[in-house]
Amino acid sequence: MKTFLRLTGLTRPFAWWMLLAALIGFAAIGSSIGLLMTSAWLISRASLLPPASALKFGIVGVRVFGGARGLLRYAERLISHNTTFRILTRLRLWFYDALEPLAPARLASFRSADLLKRITDDIQSLENIYSRVLAPPITAMLVTALVWAIVGTWSLNAAVGVLFCQLMAGILVPFITVKAAQGTAKGIMQQQAEQQLLAVDMVQGLGELHVFGMLENHLQRMHEAEEKKLALEKKSAFFEGLHESLSGLAMNAAVIWVLWSMLPMIKTGMVSSITLTAIIFGVIASFEAFLPLTGAMQHMEADIRAGDRLFEIIDAEPEVKAPQHPEPLPVHHDIVVKALCFTYPGSTIPAIDGVSFSVPQGGRTAIVGPSGAGKSTITSLLVRFWNPSAGSISIGGRDMASLDPEGVRRGIAVVSQRTYLFGQTVRENLLLAAPGADDKTLKAALSAAGLESLHDRLDDWAGQYGMNLSGGERQRLAIARMILQDAPVIVLDEATANLDAVNEQAVLDTIDRVSAGKTLIAITHRLQRMERFNQIIVLNKGVVVEEGGHEDLLRLNGFYAGMWRLQHETML
Amino acid sequence: MNLDKNLIRLLKEEKRPFILSGILGSIGALMLICQAWALGGIIEQLFKASGDGSGILPLSGLFALFSLLRMLTNWAGSQAAKRGTIRIRQKLSHRLAEAVADLGPTFARSEQSGRLVTTMLKGVESIDAYFSQYIPQLLLALVTPVLILAAVFPSDWIAGAIMVVSAPLIPFFMIVIGRSAKAATEKQWTTMSRMSGYFLDMLQGLTTLKLFAQEKTRRNGIEEASENFRRSTMKVLKIAFLSSLTLELVGTIGIAVVAVNIGLRLTSGAIPFRPAVFILLLIPDFYLTLRQLGTKFHAGMEGVTASKEMHEILDRSASLKRAAGKLDLPKAAISRPIVLDDIGFTFPGSQKPALEAVSCTLLPGTVTALTGPSGAGKSTLMNLLLRFIEPGEGKLSLGDVPVANYCQAAWYRNIAWVPQHPFLFNATIRDNLLMARPEATYEEIETALRQAGLVEMVSSLPDGLETMIGEQGARLSGGEAQRLSLARAFLKDAPILLLDEPTSHTDPILETRLRAAMAELMRGRTVVMIAHRLESIRNADRIIVLDSGRVVQSGTHEELTATDGFYRRAVLSSMEAA
Which of A115, A293, A402, B79 qualifies as a FRET site for B461, CA 20 to 30 Å off? Predict the structure, then answer.
């Protein structure tokens, strides 16, 4: 219920549009009622053989109501759907606004496919709530009131009976069918999730299934999941059909009730046959308003779950929040890391445990160690993706926690192992780093990064659906971004780990050239050209085990020297 | 009339429930006519001057009975159609899964896996409306109007004639509007997939956006994509709504014309009262049935679109002529050499062959390393040995028996495979290991984990061996996944071992630790491995260098370093890097 209310709350800016849709919907059904009542009046009046002119009123009525009904229905549908889609846009933005501060720390536990499902499927399925759950009950209530007014004018007794039948069709029938089908929607969704997993396992693991002889078994499991889902769907269809029949019965009951309660009034002359006929037809037409109610109710269960899934993300607390009065990045930027500790949620072993070191402005530091030593955790903490569990990082003498996180990120350029390119043009991918840059600047950066070949392709699509850039080109594009960002601090996080030997050398040359004079922190497990660094921090299992210059560390003949030998003797 | 050839073929396989649904629907239509007849009688009684109401009681009894029967037959009819639909969906989903399985891993990996899964699941779901709604409505639209006309004509031929003349207008407008609707619906799908693509891009790149502090500015893009989607959806809906408006107008105008016409003739006494009421009660349903066909037509359209994509997969699998070998593979046979004789392979739709005239003999118990630049055909050769694809030209045989003659299951029993990107199933670590040998004991699993250097990693997980991994479970790094796959190979203990860069994601320190275990694994087996790192292929019995699908060099490390060629150049370049 809480979820439902929160979802409804989102419609507030559009409340008047929703109400308008409900009113027009009411007018449309009102026209149906009018059409049938005037037709009935026309025929029964005509049967009394009056002059043709006496029928004028009826003829005009039939034409007006007949035309109005279609037009009103058209207007109602356009308004309600358009409003719904506008609400959905709002919902998407709202979701993005909530999602963005959570990245990447709080989103680590979600898969991007799952997030995509939430932002597209779940939001789309809320369409039902907005287009079918909110307006139709208002329309149904207005129609009930109208019929009460029409029937009640002649007979209170008949009106009570009709109201009873309408309440049956509008409240009891949906309630019963939804209650009876309860759990099926949830069950179907669970089966769908199960099928999704099985199908993904099958498509992506088909090779393994073949080779391990598990294919038959897996197909059987998929088959069973499908059967289970279909059995539930059958159940749900059973009740859906039941609802239509039950509301049809309620309608016929109302007709019979009106007939029987008003028949004696014809004899006393209190009601004319013409009136009674018209009322019967009006009652029949009014039941159209109750048909959409059950469908909406039936999907509610699924919609509320979709809402829950969205709120689950929206309500998550971001890991890093900007301080109330954030300070700008200091001009001076010595970096001092003091007794830094960090443990990932759900893990028992700290990723880094009491790491301290400092990097003077303009200094060049390497952080090395085997994989799993905690090197990349330091990058995440430096750019404020996570908060340290203990200890601190300060820049220019100010604790990072007091600085504006966005300011920090603008001041630190990161080139990581895997460069993400957006499915947009090369230009847009570059502009990320320097939003206002002109083409001349962009081309200069491309040249400096060794990508003259892209000068004429600024408007070509990069990324997923665009040109297939090689690993080397991607890393060079990342370097072009780094140049454009022009940040005083550069962090290279295994920036060349995915490149082959020849490319690696060339990219390292470029980096050396463009990072001159800046503060550089390089994180790597591949020990190459280590003599370039002023200091090398050696991490193992989250602890600094050695530090010093390349020659010193080799002389020390410890952990670093061991790593060095291992990597250089396995080569030919 | 939206009768998709493939869908109709499916319908024919399960026609009985639909025939039943049609019969029940026709009975329902008859009941509708009887209901109108009874209600017409009741109203006539109301107008009878005598009006003691004695005639009303039996008539309202009949009215109630007919309406009850009508509800029941309609309900039973829709249930029957649903039953048939469910059977069709069952069959189709099973066939699709089997088709994908037959097309094999190279196909499954070449398609966007997300799209394939969507076709397999959502595709089958989306044909539901076609069978459970459109087809029954089509039957109803064929029967109900005819029955109504049959009832109307004897009572009043003029009203009947008006109905006959106006009825074709509905299908006419439906077709006219349907055409533009189709184009718009297709465009709508593109906008929708573009929107999803845009969101996915944003989500995957969110970390990158934040690194550049651009996450706020990119928000506008989402608004734009979403609003574009709204506009294009509204365009489709406008057409759909306009079509129902037109159809409804045709219907109401029809009703109005008949009502006014009958009314005027009533005043002159040209038509009696009861048939007039009877006809007036029936006309709305006459037009409604035809109109609803339009609505259901739109509902069924999605199914037709989905059917295209599904049948593409089904047809592709049907056109695949795979040799279904039946021979069992005895242990003795596996000790014969694997012979590749003049093998060629070209991927469908490609101009350039992926493999050309490849011949070599893999002796039992030897290690063969495949190397060469990317795109040289190494993986294609591996896929041939895995029988994921079959040679286009030439012969792949075991001794002198073509490999295709052996049944696939028997062939796979003798193969252990460590792919470059191993897949971990959505199950526990233990289950993922047991795939390789379901009867393995706890000790054997422990040994395999130790050999693959995974003991530490597994014991650090909260549930150890019982930790769920895969899509919904804990995520393992690329290196850990590879080692888990290595542990599977240890467990499987098969005579043929196929390795695709088994330690490409492992850091050098760990790799050194694994080296002894790898040597142990390869001992006594026929091994084919793809490798880039020279240190791991140096000790192979034979190194085959592929380039552009051809074998360009072949020999031992010593032989190849002695002559100029790809291998020597690669060795020299890696020395420079050091």
Answer: A115
